[in-house]
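Record type: monomer structure entry
Structure origin: computed from sequence
Chain ID: A
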Amino acid sequence: YRCRDCGKSFSWSSHWERHQRIHTGEKPYECAECGKSFGRTSHLYRHQRTHAGGRPHVCGECGKSFNSTLHFQKHLRAHG
């Protein structure tokens, strides 16, 4: 499966279909809590944790908390 827009190839049709959303801007997965939409279910699930108040990553330097490991790690690097 090859993307006509950018030429990227995929072994699985489901991956090709998911990729197409990058070009179309389609965001079929909507948060029932706030209505924000996402192109991937994993992004919706990550977003939904923000409504649950789940911010398990707390910076020991400044006390700021994060629900995303990636954002927490990026924040820690900013402290040096």
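Annotation 1: The mean pLDDT is 89.
Annotation 2: Residues 13-24 form the longest helix (12 residues).
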